[in-house]
Amino acid sequence: MNNIYERHVFVCTSGKTCPKKGPVEDILGLMRQEIKSRGLKDKIRINKSGCLDWCDSGPVMVCYPEGVWYTNIQLEDVPQILEEHIINGKPVERLVYKPEKE
Ligand code: FES
After folding, report:
1. Can you give the pTM of this predicted structure?
2. Is 44 domain-assigned?
């Protein structure tokens, strides 16, 4: 099956730093479980990723097609990110990484 996903999420689970900074496997597992239980596996893909080069801000994930980054993810933030952004397309502004202005 060659799906073009509506939303594609990469969670850093196998970099050297993120797994030491938070429960990356639990974050990934919760996301996958929710997507599966809602029957959204054909529309939304949750992938493991290696280092995304944002190690100091881990755990991190990036969501496409928006290219929105979430940093310092806490497990308790995952349901809101899932519901509002991953499933309904509205990034959770309070958690979105915002670069400092130069
Ligand atoms: S180890 Fe996760 S971004 Fe580098």
Report:
1. 0.93
2. yes
